[in-house]
Amino acid sequence: MGANSRVKSLESALHVLNAIPEDSSISVTQLSKDTGLSKSTVCKILATYCDYGFVAQDPASKLFSLGPMLITKGQRALKNVNLRQVIRPYLKYLSGKFNENSMLMTQYGNAALISEYCEAEVPVRLAMRLSQVHELYYGAAPKVILANKKPEEQAALIDSMVFVKHTPATITSKEALYEVLTHIRETGFCYSGGEFDSSGVGIAVPIWDGAKTVAGGMAMNIPVFRVSEERLVEMIAEMKRCAVQVSEALGADPGEIAQMIHLDQSIHIDINLPQA
Known about the structure:
The structure is a single chain. By secondary structure, the protein is α+β, with helices and mostly antiparallel strands. Helix content is about 45%, strand content about 15%. It has ten helices and eight strands. The protein has helices spanning about 10-20, 30-35, 40-50, 70-80, 85-100, 140-145, 150-160, 175-185, 230-250, 255-260, and strands at about 55, 65, 100-110, 110-120, 135, 190-195, 200-210, 215-225. It has a six-stranded antiparallel sheet, with helices on both faces. The chain has a two-stranded antiparallel ribbon with strand order 1-2. Helix 1 (about 10-20) crosses helix 2, helix 5 (about 85-100) runs antiparallel to helix 9 and helix 9 packs antiparallel against helix 10.
């Protein structure tokens, strides 16, 4: 759709919803700062969201958090995604082989959510949960999805972004993001060093469907104390092989996908470990 067909008031409302943290509460003042909208506009949007259960307000602190209706809607949407069934055994295989969490992330509006995951059977692992949402400018799987969008769709998504610096490693400019996205397409994978959570890193490869459309990102996250370049290279190579098979099951040509994700290309990672 063209820019003229968009509903500006709805875009403002979605900016507010996307600016609410996943695991904490936020004030009207902070939402106003993060979105660039006036406090009165933010208040009206939040009141509407509260009426429909998409946002909840704490009576004591007056702070706002995401509401239960988002979980309900997200779970309904996930039931229709066949990709989850296809990828599940591959995630189980990867987690079993490397003893790390693995997941599938798919696009959810202007963001990405965890559609399926498999937790590693180790005492220390990074926290994750089904339907957890991440913005497309941070994290390995979200950026893999964004990198492989059609140019016009990618540009529209980036133009709508409100960058928030979660850690020193978080991307906070369009120029830096475009540079990273180019590197992802050239290598067929993404390495993310603590852009949202400095306690771990993420790696991801794209999944494609029969229409040569990126269907999601297959990812693994690793605590920093278990990270080494040699180990990451092995994990990415295996993830690429799995991605070809998953994409083939979705109707994609395996030979084409192998070329698109540079299956036979040597893997080099410049590891800048985040501070734990």
